[in-house]
């Protein structure tokens, strides 16, 4: 997290400890209003369309739980959607009898948008759900083209932007989504334990709400009746880690002050350079596929356990992660990998650091 993000969080916790939780919240009411505005600006929406949550996963679950599924409904997704999202869909399938259908990939990698469009028109799914950038590779899915078909067909559209928010411009109006779930802790450089959800006016006007709203999202007005909040707040819960909401907003402001276009250019330059260098190491197989690639670089180190490679590089101050097969069972099966390495350069990394990471990896693999 950048210093201004840390400062905001620390100051708020400090205030809570001095004057009390409710009192701090009341004293900082204006800062919380600004927090909705900052995150709204980040994704091109209005403050009333933003809900703060604990994570991208919670945002996603809240969104999915608001869809009035009936037995036989179809959830149309892709072969590269996030594992937790897939688990939630399969759980819904088992409980409600909905069908989970995955559009096929095209030759370049990533969903075949033409086929997906036909499937949206032909199958009339209850929900279309696409992960913008998957957890395990640099693929960028064409969420905008899919969004325009969903708009034409009036189909609900949920985008998981966990890995894209903070590393590239993300504009909900351009994408045409009904929901966009995101986390604070990844490329946005915000705190762990915090996320947000964009909810479209269409969804609000339809009266959709999470399956379990609480007294934050609704008011219990009579013994047998409650009224929903008229904004995306209906997707929030009453209790929350308020310091992290302010931290998330500060991270959004920080990213916007640098500029999302500049961030995108810089991270892609570093990621492309990293891929070029990795390709020259014997025994490294690059795994990223797609017409457009973002700043998640994935590769397989032949004959080495990725977890051991991660541990060895961490000792040298280089942070990367190992991805198990179950992070993306379909994509990994397609690529024939059981585990992989994930390197995610950010704009603050230098070319020298990229070089050092590649050298360290080469050294580790030659041992
Ligand atoms: C594509 C994608 N979606 C969602 C998530 C979940 O994010 P969180 O753990 O913050 O809920 C992740 C986390 O790695 C992810 O990569």
Please explain how this structure is put together.
- The protein has 367 residues and is an alpha/beta fold.
- The protein folds into 2 domains: 3-258, Type I PLP-dependent aspartate aminotransferase-like (Major domain) (Aspartate Aminotransferase, domain 2, 3-Layer(aba) Sandwich), CATH 3.40.640.10; 260-366, Aspartate Aminotransferase, domain 1.
- Helices cover 45% and strands 16% of the residues.
- Strand 5 (156-160), helix 8 (172-175) and strand 6 form a beta-alpha-beta unit.
- It is globular, with a radius of gyration of 21 Å.
- Bound molecules: pyridoxal-5'-phosphate.
- Pyridoxal-5'-phosphate binds next to helix 4.
What overall geometry do the principal axes of the alpha carbons give? globular
Unreliable stretches (pLDDT < 50, length at least 5) are none
Total helical elements: 14
What is the helix/strand order? HHHEHEHEHEHEHEEHEEHHEEHEHEH
Ends: how far apart? 34 Å
CATH topology group of the largest domain: Aspartate Aminotransferase, domain 2
Q: Structural class of the secondary elements?
A: alpha/beta
Query: What is the strand arrangement across the widest sheet?
Result: 1-7-6-5-4-2-3
Mind summarizing the main beta sheet? 7 strands, mixed
Chain oligomer state: single chain
Cofactors, ions and other ligands in the entry: pyridoxal-5'-phosphate
Give the C-alpha Rg: 21 Å
**What is the number of E strands?**
13
Name of the CATH superfamily of the largest domain: Type I PLP-dependent aspartate aminotransferase-like (Major domain)
Relative strand content: 15-25%
